[in-house]
């Protein structure tokens, strides 16, 4: 990785397979991206250190790892209980008693265990989402040869990351699918990716990776022209052969009409972009900010609905470029995205 005005040097092509947590990004997808000359990231979020280690061991190509930064939640027991009771009827068809679900507010996603793993088994890049790690974490990873990337959604977040000493920035525009990387979920940024790349490239001296809604070769070329060193893609890979996305998710992406994504906190208590469905329509207005407690509350419902083939109650994460998500080999998608470089 070079300066923000230079080029991505970690792989042949400046195209990165984004880490999509929850099963969509699996080793086969990372390997497929690499086979086309791109660079892939494993999603460490929601995994145990043991599961992440097994995925790392399955790869023989260079790759990065993404982790979720744990943070405090301001969700009260009363707010949680109110929302749990509101969702009770959603779980009834699956035998779930959501109204009495426990509030899991102190889950740090096995943060220290995964950091220990990455210090013991270094990878070229570790990226962080949902906030910034401590300076001690950045130094420790740098000491074992790992470059640290911070996901940012505003210029202010980017400048804070620079002060921390990270090595590169992932500028995530509002078009991105899945969870926003905002450091302040109660005030999510809404900056389009092109404008964010311009701001961050001009306002910092670090390499910038553009992310958010990219699904065409012309967008990759444009973002590189505005100062990005590389471009990360996720949603456009969800329907490929190597994707681990559920059949319900893939089918919903194929069937959705135009302009169907919205930003919602209804499923996890944190802003995320996905396809609009009945669950969002019914509960977005009353859903509290409260990750990870709301994530744990709705997780069994989402799993049961996916197993039953009911997209109405599944978190169908998708960026604004979802209509151009391709089927077939992921390597072909990466090659096509780089075809105008």
TrEMBL record:
Q: InterPro entries, from UniProt? A: Aldolase_TIM, NMO
Entry cofactors: FMN
Whether Flavoprotein counts among this entry's keywords is yes
Molecular function in Gene Ontology: monooxygenase activity
Sorted alphabetically, which keywords does the UniProt record give? Detoxification, Flavoprotein, FMN, Monooxygenase, Oxidoreductase
The protein's annotated catalytic reaction(s) are:
3 propionate 3-nitronate + 3 O2 + H2O = 3 3-oxopropanoate + 2 nitrate + nitrite + H2O2 + 3 H(+)
Q: Does the keyword Flavoprotein apply?
A: yes
UniProt cross-references to Pfam families, sorted A to Z: NMO
Family label: Belongs to the nitronate monooxygenase family. NMO class I subfamily.
| Protein name in the entry | Propionate 3-nitronate monooxygenase
Q: Which organism is it from?
A: Kribbella lupini
């Amino acid at each position: 990785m070079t300066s923000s005005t230079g080029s991505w040097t970690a792989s042949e092509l400046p195209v990165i397979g984004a880490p999509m947590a929850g099963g969509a990004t699996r080793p086969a997808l990372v390997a497929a991206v690499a086979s086309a000359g791109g660079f892939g990231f494993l999603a460490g979020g929601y995994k145990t250190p043991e599961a992440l280690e097994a995925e790392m061991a399955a790869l023989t190509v260079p790759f990065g790892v993404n982790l979720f930064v744990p943070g405090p939640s301001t969700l009260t027991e009363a707010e949680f209980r109110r929302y749990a009771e509101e969702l009770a009827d959603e779980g009834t068809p699956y035998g779930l008693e959501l109204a009495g679900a426990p509030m899991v507010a102190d889950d740090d996603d096995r943060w220290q265990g995964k950091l220990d793993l990455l210090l013991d088994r270094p990878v070229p890049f570790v990226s962080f989402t949902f906030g910034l790690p401590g300076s001690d974490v950045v130094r420790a990873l740098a000491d074992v040869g790992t470059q640290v990337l911070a996901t940012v959604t505003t210029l202010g977040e980017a400048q804070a990351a620079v002060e921390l000493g990270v090595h590169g920035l992932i500028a995530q525009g509002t078009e991105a699918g899945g969870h926003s990387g905002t450091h302040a979920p109660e005030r999510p940024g809404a900056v389009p990716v092109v404008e964010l790349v311009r701001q961050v490239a001009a306002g910092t001296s670090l390499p910038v990776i553009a992310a958010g809604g990219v699904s065409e070769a012309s967008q990759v070329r444009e973002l590189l022209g505005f100062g990005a060193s590389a471009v990360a893609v996720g949603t456009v890979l969800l329907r490929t052969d190597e994707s681990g996305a559920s059949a319900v998710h893939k089918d919903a992406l194929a069937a959705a009409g135009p302009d169907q994504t919205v930003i919602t906190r209804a499923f996890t208590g944190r802003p995320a972009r996905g396809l609009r469905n009945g669950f969002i329509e019914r509960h977005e207005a009353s859903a509290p900010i409260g990750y990870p407690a709301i994530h744990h509350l709705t997780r069994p419902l989402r799993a049961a609905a996916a197993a039953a083939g009911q997209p109405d109650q599944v978190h169908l994460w998708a960026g604004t470029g979802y209509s151009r998500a391709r089927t077939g080999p992921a390597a072909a998608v990466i090659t096509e995205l780089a075809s105008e470089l």
